[in-house]
Specification:
The structure is a homodimer of 287-residue chains. With 287 residues, chain A is of the alpha+beta class. The first copy, chain A, has 2 domains: 154 residues, PSTPO5379-like; 118 residues, PSTPO5379-like fold (2-Layer Sandwich). In chain A, 18% of the residues lie in helices and 26% in strands. In chain A, strands 1, 2, 3, 4, 5, 6, 11 and 12 form an 8-stranded antiparallel β-sheet that branches. In chain A, strands 7-8-10-9 form a 4-stranded antiparallel β-sheet. In chain A, a hairpin with an 8-residue loop joins strand 2 and strand 3. Chain A is globular, with a radius of gyration of 18 Å. Chains A, B: InterPro entries: D-Glu_cyclase, Putative_hydro-lyase.
């Protein structure tokens, strides 16, 4: 199945028809992947500013043209035209799976669509995803571990505060993690640096980053799959005994964490972490 | 003197002629005030990205049109034209006073100009300043303590990390502090929120923010003057015994701290904290 999903449009159609319900990492190579957050319109301005003040975890790419629009997006990037984002689009069905929050609490996870929850008052935000620079890393010759193991990228809560915006006063970064060889870190930083709208360069790296981020256990992920060594053991087993170290990026699940921290009222929807909206434009179109 | 400096141009000329050599807080009411950082050109791209990734402490407003330009700026804000920034400008003289760094160390402070240090390889960056929303706060009826006491705003190092960019891997926020009554905090947040290019709403407030920011002693400032109560006592004396609490904003001295943390080689120049470049455009032109 995966091999036939070679475009963003094909990935969206497969998700719409419930034929693809897992991580989109590696899918539709070089097409832009994106996080989704859908809010009642009264929270839209505070969220827009949260993104503007925290562009590393929350790089805003686009939003609904008008409240209630699930098929039309306006671009926030001067280099991408509205019509090039996603031509045949239904935000209610085109992510593989979704999370649904009610009054700040997760009430449904990994559901196939949000057709019954969507209202004419909902505003969708499309946010860059670090899966969008994985193909550039592969081209540079480094291994993307979770992709090779057909697992979802590990994601963690941190204690790193976001810059507050309105109701969002106690939000913290969510990060994704990929292990790399120590000697490849500068290469990995240099390649991902250009991809500002898809989180850019890592925010922390090395085993000592765990304490700074407030991650207690590298094997205890909050989203995605626990990381494994190349031979399938828990990653902590190689602590101090391997050339591989964890490298952390800002993650577009941060808005879902922010929704819970702020206990937003009403129905909020988002993609199921790792299972992204795939766009018509390419990763390199956003540079 | 202050009363005659009613425009940005007048403030720059007074600084140029060494007739104004102190804080510009309250000067040239409603004219945009700005931080300055001048780097060897090889660091320009990493610094530009540091600003893009950390727009709250480092909101980039403009930069030298070309390396070596001290009289012409190009705007980074779509809402402000290059020619409206500052028409009669000499970045080497038009801040009241300057700091000079060599190989990451402060070697001159509060000097009147940087004429002898400036070279054709230097690139200047102009960054928003929170003194630019003080008049909006005054119009809303709240007191700006340091301004009433004719002192420079208190500024502090924090442990809050910036998102890394290239050589800038261990930078942390610098914050400015103004005390306000607890019941005015939401008003203060609302008024300053619009001023994204001059740091926007505060990043933290309340006495418990000190621990989160890593500020050990509210009276021990790293730049500016120590804060005082209305009747002139050290601020810590009213801890838990006053309606006033400290409110912290991202601060444009952050780049000077970043230069030291990254131990940048060569000659780097900046304004003397609190003594800003005053522009021709108004505070509300950047909204």
């Amino acid at each position: 199945m995966a091999c036939t999903l070679t475009t963003g449009h094909a990935a969206r159609i497969a998700a719409r028809k419930n034929k693809w319900a897992q991580s989109t990492s590696g899918l539709a190579d070089t097409y832009l992947q994106a996080n989704l957050l859908v809010l009642p319109s009264r929270y839209a301005e505070a969220f827009r500013q949260l993104c503007a003040r925290n562009p590393v975890p929350c790089p805003l790419i686009a939003e609904s043209t008008n409240p209630g629009d699930f098929a039309m997006l306006k671009s926030h990037l001067p280099q991408v035209r509205d019509e090039d984002l996603a031509a045949d689009l239904d935000l209610r069905t085109d992510c593989p799976r979704y999370n649904v929050y009610a009054d700040g609490k997760l009430v449904h996870t990994a559901v196939n669509d949000i057709l019954s929850q969507w209202t004419s008052d909902h505003v969708a935000f499309v946010i860059g995803c670090s899966q969008s620079f994985e193909s550039a890393l592969i081209r540079a010759g480094v291994e993307i571990r979770h992709l090779n193991q057909q697992r979802t990228v590990p994601m963690y809560r941190t204690k790193l505060p976001l810059n507050p915006s309105g109701i969002f006063t106690s939000s913290t970064y969510v990060v994704s993690m990929r292990p790399f060889r120590k000697q490849d870190i500068e290469l990995v930083r240099r390649i991902t640096r250009r991809y500002l709208p898809t989180h850019g360069e890592p925010i922390a790296w090395g085993w000592d980053a765990l304490e700074r981020l407030g991650i207690i256990d590298i094997d205890d992920v909050q989203w995605g799959h626990p990381p494994l060594t190349q031979d399938g053991r828990p990653l902590h087993e190689v602590f101090g005994d391997s050339e591989n170290v964890p490298v952390f990026w800002g993650c577009g699940v941060t808005p879902q964490e922010a929704v819970m921290k702020a206990a937003l009222e009403g129905t909020i929807m988002a993609h199921h972490p790792g299972e992204m909206l795939v766009m018509d434009c390419r990763e390199d179109d956003v540079l």
